[in-house]
Amino acid sequence: MYKELHLVKTNQSIIFKESLDSNYGCYMWPSSVLLCMFIATHPDILAEKRVLEVGSGIGLVGLIASRFSKSVVMTDMDNKDILDNLNNVIKLNKFDNCAVQPLNWGWPIVELNGKFDCIIGSDVFYNPCDFESLLFTIHYIFRYNSTPGAVFITSYQERSSKRRIKPLLDKFGLECNVISFEAAIDLIPDYLRFSSGKLVNEMKQFEFNDISMSSIFLLKIFPKQTFV
Questions:
Q1: Is 86 helix (H, G, I), strand (E, B) or coil?
Q2: What is the pTM of this model?
């Protein structure tokens, strides 16, 4: 199903597509709404920056980020359906500062072109089995494909109090801070408005009143040491 997100403050619209596929990379998750909200309300964070998105899924966050940054490279697992959808929504929106690249987490790392000023990703801490390979990948990008001062901004949904990433952060020389940010549901329409429909030109407004943001947090992850 095609959906549309309208950036109220900049009067821009973004079209994206969800799928009924069982792959969880094909849905819009609440965490992505929070990260989109954060980017829309803090546009200076990505201004003139080259951004890398991990776990792009349907590409919503990366598309939003491209409206405020110099460029965005959206990545996800080497899955044809996911990558084709990302390429298709870029073409549909006619965005010329976006690119798509497969990036499986863990070793070996696919070669990335250039260096990035910021890494973003929504709900990438979903499956605990992937936590170590994800943080290894983030560590590797910080070391070899990032500029000094680069950070990883991610939205994280707490699904179990037993899940901990602190030991893995220590293992890979990373630190993590919680970003203080409150985005109440009733404020979302002031910045983001969503519509949906079978066809792009037959949109019907839908609401997010059933989404609870109380378990979702924004994290800033960065290396303990600066890599040269």
A1: helix
A2: 0.89
